[in-house]
Amino acid sequence: QVQPVESGGGLVQAGGSLRLSCVVSRTFFRFVTMGWYRQAPGKQREFVADITNNPDTRYADSVKGRFTISRDNAKNTVYLQMSSLKPEDTGVYYCNWGNNWGQGTQVTVSS
Fold first, then answer.
1. d(C-alpha 78, C-alpha 70), whole Å
2. Ramachandran region of residue 84, left (φ > 0), alpha (ψ -120 to 50) or beta?
3. Could you please report the per-residue DSSP string of the chain?
4. Any residues with CB less than 8 A from the CB of 86 and at least 6 apart, and which?
5. 27-41 burial, b if ≥16 CB within 10 A, otherwise e?
6. Which residues, in sequence order, are CB contacts of 103 under 8 Å at separation 6+?
7. 13: β partners
8. What span, in angstroms and rounded, lies between the C-alpha atoms of 49 and 62?
9. What is the C-alpha separation between 61 and 23, in angstroms, rounded?
């Protein structure tokens, strides 16, 4: 399956944590850069974090120090550990590689 498949979203109170998972069921997974993006209601989709095959990581300034991206190549899975969540983190979170996007998973942070 080329399209990423996300899971792990939900409703959480501000200050809480969630872990998102994304699976790409192909053997080339270990060679590709995987990214997480999010889209809040009425806003454009924005970059959250990505991880290369080295693995090197990058984060949006808004999530640095709170979110951690990681990957498990044996499981063809990339994770996004989100801590100290804020209401402004609410949105649909999408997993990406190349031009391939998942369906998204909803994250809602209540104040």
1. 6
2. left
3. --S-EEE--EEEETT--EEEEEE--SGGGGGS-EEEEEE-TTS--EEEEEE-SS--EEE-TTTTTTEEEEEEGGGTEEEEEE-S--GGG-EEEEEEETTEE---EEEEEE-
4. 14, 109
5. eebeebbbbbbbeee
6. 3, 5, 6
7. 110
8. 10
9. 25
Over the stretch 11-48, which tens digit does the pLDDT of each residue have?
999 999 999 999 998 888 999 999 999 999 999 999 99
Give the Cα separation of 17 and 14 in Å (integer): 9
Mean of the per-residue pLDDT values for the chain?
A: 96
Burial of 58 (0-12, 13-18, 19+ CB in 10 A): middle
